[in-house]
Design a protein that fits this description.
With about 300 residues, this protein is α/β, with parallel strands linked by helices. It has helices at about 15-25, 50-60, 75-90, 120-145, 165-185, 205-210, 235-245, 260-265, 280-285; strands at about 5-10, 30-35, 65-70, 95-100, 150-155, 190-200, 255-260. This is SDR family oxidoreductase.
């Protein structure tokens, strides 16, 4: 796929990994529609300062064309109108859909048994983390089907069958992985690939704020959690997405759930510091094993 003239929809591209993916596609020369609930007209319930307009401007600065559209992906009408706009403005073309809608951090409860968690939060978590992806694919995929080509990237958390630490959170992320597999099966005969893509320990804007650090002094966060040493920037995830989209043998990944480290070992990209954080091995040997936290897991 030639990315210099690709049309990309990054759904939920306001911040974090989705924002970095949008920017990296911009750096590759793509036209990127960036959507989300947080805009300069008002914040979403996440109450974060990042906006879709800001992400679109970052896409422009990287060398692409960013188009910001405020969209609540739980609203079918808004999503349908978004896709109709892309259809109209891009002559029916949509090459890549990144389903990165989330906004579930305030709804996820940790270290609390699932039967003691608010069921309302659980249902809303499923709506925001799964239903939004279904709605977006339902309206966007027909543009790809008409052209018999395309790539769907489902952003997830985790590629293995191991438990993610909270029942409802685990249900959402495992459902997203399954959504990639199911879409791949339904769309294979139309030349469309679907992949679930996971970061490791993502050093997002919200995570930096949580640890009270910036990207410049992020290692200070290890004083609060020593495992922060294995964290990776959102750019690492963005580079993984671009590497996938640029692969002439892309279909080998169809239906699979893959992580940044696995893809970096295949394609050779690195994080912004030139390293390749191996989160999977770190968790196996340090978090669940007896080895001490170490930067040796950043090859």
């Amino acid at each position: 796929m030639t990315l210099s003239n690709a049309v990309v929809l990054v759904a939920g591209g306001t911040r974090g990994g989705s924002r970095a993916i949008a920017v990296q596609f911009g750096a590759a020369g793509a036209t990127v529609y960036v959507t989300g609930r947080s805009s300069r007209a008002g914040r979403s319930p996440m109450n974060r300062p990042e906006t879709v307009e800001e992400t679109a401007e970052m896409v422009d600065a990287a060398g692409g064309r960013g188009i910001a559209v405020a969209v609540d992906h739980q609203d079918e009408k808004q999503v349908q109108e978004l896709v109709e706009r892309i259809d109209r403005e891009q002559n029916g073309r949509l090459d890549i859909l990144v389903n990165g809608i989330w906004g579930g951090d305030p709804l996820a409860h940790w270290d609390v048994p699932f039967w003691e968690q608010p069921i309302g939060d659980a249902i809303q978590l499923l709506r925001q983390g799964v239903e939004t992806h279904l709605i977006t694919s339902r309206f966007a995929v027909p543009l790809m089907v008409a052209r018999k080509s395309g790539l769907i990237i489902e952003l997830t958390d985790g590629t293995a069958d191991s438990y993610r630490g909270s029942l409802y959170y685990d249900l959402v992320k495992s459902s997203v992985n399954r959504l990639a597999l199911a879409q791949a099966a339904d769309l294979r005969s139309y030349g469309i690939t679907a992949v679930a893509l996971s970061p490791g320990f993502l050093r997002s804007e919200a995570m930096l704020d949580h640890f009270g650090v910036s990207e410049e002094n992020w290692r200070d966060g290890t004083q609060k959690d020593p495992h922060f040493i294995i964290s990776e920037t959102p750019t690492y995830l963005g580079r993984a997405a671009v590497a996938l989209a640029s692969d002439p043998d892309l279909r080998r990944w169809s239906g699979k759930a893959v992580g940044t480290q696995e893809l970096s070992s295949v394609y050779g990209f690195t994080d912004i510091d030139g390293t390749r954080p191996d989160t999977e091995r770190y968790f196996a040997e340090v978090v669940y094993g007896n080895k001490p936290p170490s930067e040796n897991y950043r090859s």
